[in-house]
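Exam revision sheet. Question 4 asks you to relate a sequence to its structure. Input first:
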Amino acid sequence: MGAVLVDRSQRPVSLTATGRVLQRHAQAIVSDAEALEIAVRHAGSSKVQELSIGVVDSFASTVGPSLIKSLLKTTATHLSFRSGLAHDQAEGLLSRNLDFIITSDPLDDVDGLERHAILSEPFVLLLPDKLGPASELQDLKRLAAAHSLIRFSARSQIGAQIERHLRRLGIKAARLLEVDATDTLVAMISAGLGWAIATPLCLLQAGARAKGVKASPFPVAGFSRQLHLIARAGEYGDLPQRIVDLSCEIVRRECVPEIRHFAPWLKNQIVVG
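Answer key, structure tokens:
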């Protein structure tokens, strides 16, 4: 085109204004070419050769095993299943290191994504057996004043969501103990070190560690967590919806009955799909 792309008169060398324009458009072209390759590969085979999915820990531990089994049987030849914090999953999707993520962060401020609902579950109180339920907001304030709140790390999406809601309710609890993992949080409650706010799926994830821990309704209605599958829009055809359908089937078949066993009052509060 006869245009100068690099300014070599200064150190370090840098792009000219024309070079920056070319770089911006070239990045979009390369991204489209990668998406085209994925679409063609998927269209030509009943199975995807490689699939990378990032998943929040509570979903990975409960729904993950059956989902992986189904995907390897019907959908993917090789599967990478990475659990971790929602923030890390989002970075993996946006940098194209992950094909899909299952997360509690809908990434509403990011364009070019498709979002599929999997599960909505209410937050609950997790209490050691010796503590009674908090049925009113004032009960919750007294609980927070008298006993330690074991927090999820503020780095996590679930931790940040809980902190925002407590501030809205005007509840102040001393910051004494903060953990990253659900297993650790539930073990701390079982040992009588305090109480926590979590979701039914988190308690299900803890499994045997939940001995001596009971779930109680959160005293203010409408506080819930939503899990979505998020993908880059238009790159994978109907594959995201198929994975969502599989996930919802597993939640209904395996998770909901177990949750209702330890908390029958949750019967109509868990929405799948």
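Marking note for examiners. The chain has a mean pLDDT of 88.
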